[in-house]
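Issue: ligand-bound run for adenosine-5'-triphosphate - logging full I/O for the record.

Environment: standard queue, default settings, no custom constraints.

Inputs:
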Amino acid sequence: MLTASHLGFRYAGNPVLHDVNLRAEPASMLAVTGPNGSGKSTLLHLLAGVEQPAEGTVRRDPGVRVALLPQRTADIDALPLTVAECVRIGRFHPGRWPRRADRNAVTEIMERLEIAHLARRRLRELSGGQRQRTLIAQTFVQEAAVYLLDEPTAALDTDSRRRVHELLTERVRSGAALIVASHDDEETSLADARHHLEQRGPVR
Ligand SMILES: Nc1ncnc2c1ncn2[C@@H]1O[C@H](COP(=O)(O)OP(=O)(O)OP(=O)(O)O)[C@@H](O)[C@H]1O
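Outputs:
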């Protein structure tokens, strides 16, 4: 589906990733772990095609759809979007009007993540957890084969975290490949495999 071979990356000459090899397997969750600054977010950006590797390749099989839940999204907050509009973007297909299935999927995911009552609120008016649940809804409303999730539950309370973990497990059961960067032991224990990144670059 999605294969990373010998990936390397540097920010302004500072090495972050070196010789990373991994594959998104269908019906499987891979946890990406490692200390702060070890390059988990960078790796997800490379896998999503947001950044280009300095070394190695990311190969995506033709037609495989990849959804990314980024960790930092200040640009999204700057848009005057409501919660419902933000989630609907996940079902937006250029050149075609939303179908009933798209509208149903949006309603269903908003109910599951308990943001339906916030539908008309602007993103910038939300709490951190409400905003995170909105972005998770936007990610999971997409019909992707591969989901790249950067610390999906870091801002969430226990109930919301449990709900998101149920969603992760269901997506895996329905055949998706999940790659999840996480510091949370409970979350990484849901994974079928783990890829640990070591700290690189100069020690300060
Ligand atoms: N845009 C950037 N420009 C320069 N350096 C960057 C940039 N983004 C990240 N870095 C550096 O690259 C390294 C890896 O960052 P990254 O965000 O990928 O780590 P992470 O493992 O996701 O960390 P965390 O657990 O804190 O989320 C860090 O040392 C960081 O300071």
